Amino acid sequence: MPPISLHLPEWFVSGGATMWVLAFLSVVALATLISKILQFARVRPGNTRQADQLLDALRQGKPPAKPGKLTSPIDRVLWQCWNNRNLEEAAWQEESLRLARTALDDLRGGLRVLEVISAIAPLLGLLGTVFGMIGAFQALETAGSQVDPSILSGGIWEALLTTAAGLTVAIPTLAAFHWADRSIEQCREKLQDRLSRLKVVRNIHAESEPVEEDRDPAVSHAY
Question: At what angle do helices 111-143 and 149-208 cross, to 10 degrees?
């Protein structure tokens, strides 16, 4: 069976071991990006339809309709917080923050992988270039007085291949990271806004509830 290098482009083989590492990182980054796209398409982190319906119904003094499937983290957290409305104020706020943090942490899964790859891919490419330049100058030294400019030029362009490969991996990975991070940041801002509005509505409902006075009816009729 012929070696696998025979089926690869010459420029890839010329890059050495660094090219294999960068190829592995590119596969990991692509798989992570696809998983984030599928996750965002499924949960729709910016969707606030059912959360807004809940807030509108509460502001109008109407009982909120039973929600459908709560896939959006904003919708899910708002309804969970509303179901916990009978908790004490401090406990309700702590539980609301916990639910919000949990929902956002679920969205952040995989972002660290994209961030790390976008940071180390250019460095790996530069490291491969440095090693390649060292090899090129060693070959030039070995040639002695019989210096052939093609030896140096060929070694330099082969060495620069890893830098180009590292940047090729890092740039789209960094763009993917910022896209996902911005989507989560927008979700966080919307969630914070809806939770603040829910807190106001909850306080209004708590103040408007009738307070039963434990008084003796006979005393009341005495006046």
Answer: 170
Q: Which of 169, 160, 166 has the alpha carbon at shortest distance from 123?
A: 166
Three-class DSSP labels, 97-152: HHHHHHHHHHHHCCHHHHHHHHHHHHHHHHHHHHHHHHHHHHHHHHHCCCCCHHHH
Token pair of 146 as six digits = 């019989």
119: Cα separation from own chain's centroid:
16
Residues 6+ apart with CB under 8 A from 58: 64, 82, 198, 201, 205
Residue type, position 123, single letter: L
Six-digit token pair at 223?
Answer: 């006046």
Residue 147, phi then psi, degrees to nearest 5? -75, 130
- Tokens representing 54 are 């809940």
At residue 205, what are phi and psi to the nearest 5 degrees? -65, -40
Task: Report the C-alpha gap between 165 and 196 in whole angstroms.
Answer: 47
Q: What is the pTM of this model?
A: 0.77
Show the tokens assigned to 106: 């679920």
Residues in the chain: 223
Give pLDDT tens digits for 82-129: 888 888 888 988 999 999 999 999 999 889 999 999 999 999 988 888
Q: Are 132 and 155 in contact (CB under 8 A)?
A: yes
